[in-house]
Design goal:
three-stranded antiparallel beta sheet, about 25% strand, alpha/beta, 10 helices, disordered N terminus, 2 domains, disordered C terminus
Length: about 350
């Protein structure tokens, strides 16, 4: 399914990829009648607090999008030099079979423009490789040595903003001109602003506002407090510390080619990646197709599937267990698509 938008005066198609994650597909879909699924030809910013699961989300999404684009390649620019095996595990468990290029960022005093050169390398991959996926991890790490080690003064202000402004403009141009669908992910840290609490709490991202204005899709992530896993006992944080697992919620607060202010959730096992089956369970619970009753037991269509905690701890590798939840979401997806076409 495709829709179209205009870039630099030309009419170019967006190919929408249907991922295994129901609520995510719905959250990033086009407006009514414009398609269901994740949009390619997009510059996507994913922000959130440190350790929330941004890299895991992007790695898993890149793997699934790659499969839909005939196992295209992925270039991962790790400017922070701290990404671990989680990236590779997420790709492996998504079924990724394309080419993967890992570029570790480094700067030194003798080569002040290393970051700029590496950004150009990432940009070039969109031109040189068909249906390529680029990942920049992270925006906050894009700063020249002069900004980090030079004297504080007007001459150094905005040294990160300049290469990022140039980079995002060129990437958007490349995405629009590429003969085959591509996309670029940018990860960004997110912090609470000092002195703002409660409902008035505000957030800030160290990457600046330039790329915020130019990204075509922006997703803010967090671990949510939800009531659909508590069995009527009030809101509960979506974490299972003993299993090393948690729910990651994403808010789509900018979507140039579709819905915005929509949310989704995926289920992450630390060191493993996004789990398709558990994400289906969480989607069913969040949408009301299933429910957690007293005793923390999950029920759907009159069937008792056992304790939500036991499911998280013991059913990770039991693919058959999750089939009823995935089938329930497939039916809902068909109904939503038919409504859009009307």
């Amino acid at each position: 399914m495709t829709i179209s938008f205009t870039v630099e005066g030309e009419h170019l198609p967006i190919t929408r990829v249907i991922t295994p994650f129901h609520s995510l597909n719905a959250a990033v879909s086009g407006n009514k009648g414009k398609g269901y699924g994740f949009p390619t030809r997009s510059l996507i910013e994913v922000s959130g607090n440190t350790g929330v699961g941004k890299s895991t989300l992007v790695a898993s999404l890149s793997g699934y999008i790659s499969q839909s684009l005939n196992d295209t390649g992925i270039d991962y620019l790790d400017m922070e030099r701290q990404s671990d095996d989680t990236i590779f595990s997420s790709l492996e468990n998504s079924g990724f079979a394309g080419t993967f290029r890992w570029v570790s960022g480094k700067t030194n005093k003798k080569e002040d423009n290393t970051a700029e050169k590496m950004l150009s390398t990432l940009e070039d991959s969109l031109w040189e490789n068909p249906a390529h996926i680029g990942v920049l991890d992270s925006v906050a790490a894009i700063s020249s040595v002069a900004e980090r080690e030079g004297e504080i003064g007007d001459a150094n202000i905005g040294r990160r903003a300049f290469p990022m402004a140039q980079f995002v403009r060129r990437v958007i141009f490349a995405l629009g001109k590429s003969e085959t669908p591509s996309c670029m992910f940018m990860l960004n840290h997110q912090y609470d602003k000092i002195g703002t609490i409660g409902p008035a709490k505000q957030i800030t991202s160290p990457g600046g506002e330039v790329k915020n204005n130019l990204s075509t899709l922006r997703i803010r992530t967090k671990v949510p407090w939800v009531d659909y896993i508590s069995g009527g006992s009030g809101k509960k944080e979506g974490r299972w510390d003993e299993a090393g697992a948690w729910i990651l919620e994403g808010l789509v607060d900018k979507n140039r080619d579709g819905k915005k202010n929509s949310s989704f959730q995926v289920f992450i096992y630390g060191g493993w990646g996004i789990h398709v089956g558990m994400t289906a369970v969480i989607d069913c619970l969040a949408s009301g197709l299933a429910e957690v009753k007293t005793g923390a037991k999950v029920f759907m269509d009159g069937m008792d599937f056992g304790s939500i905690n036991k499911i998280v701890e013991n059913k990770k590798d039991d693919r058959d267990f999750f089939v009823p939840f995935q089938n329930a979401l497939k039916v809902e997806t068909v109904e939503e698509t038919e409504t859009e076409e009307e």
